[in-house]
């Protein structure tokens, strides 16, 4: 994978078995999912265009909860 766009596509095709709409919306993550790359908000790094590097740590955190 070269960038975050490709990573999200790979995750959608290979890991999400049920209800992918809870994770992706269009070609990006849904609102309410915080994406951290090496502990930094991906918005600061270019979001989908961020070029992945060896040893990058990518974390997805849902800020949504049920009531």
From TrEMBL:
Main location: cytoplasm
Pfam family, one: Urm1
Source organism superkingdom: Eukaryota
TM region positions: none
Coiled coil residues, start to end: none
Keyword Cytoplasm: yes
Cross-link (Glycyl lysine isopeptide (Gly-Lys) (interchain with K-? in acceptor proteins)): 67
Single biological process term from Gene Ontology: tRNA wobble uridine modification
Keyword terms: Cytoplasm, Isopeptide bond, tRNA processing, Ubl conjugation pathway
Entries under HAMAP family matching the protein: Urm1
Function as written in the Swiss-Prot or TrEMBL entry: Acts as a sulfur carrier required for 2-thiolation of mcm(5)S(2)U at tRNA wobble positions of cytosolic tRNA(Lys), tRNA(Glu) and tRNA(Gln). Serves as sulfur donor in tRNA 2-thiolation reaction by being thiocarboxylated (-COSH) at its C-terminus by MOCS3. The sulfur is then transferred to tRNA to form 2-thiolation of mcm(5)S(2)U. Also acts as a ubiquitin-like protein (UBL) that is covalently conjugated via an isopeptide bond to lysine residues of target proteins.
Family: Belongs to the URM1 family.
Designated name of the protein: Ubiquitin-related modifier 1
Naturally occurring in which organism (per UniProt): Coilia grayii (Gray's grenadier anchovy)
Gene name as annotated: URM1
């Amino acid at each position: 994978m070269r960038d975050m766009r490709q990573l999200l596509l790979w995750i959608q095709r290979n890991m999400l078995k049920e209800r992918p709409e809870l994770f992706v919306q269009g070609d990006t993550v849904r609102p309410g999912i915080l994406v951290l790359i090496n502990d930094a908000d991906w918005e600061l790094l270019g979001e989908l265009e961020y070029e992945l590097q060896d040893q990058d740590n990518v974390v997805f955190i849902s800020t949504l909860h049920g009531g």
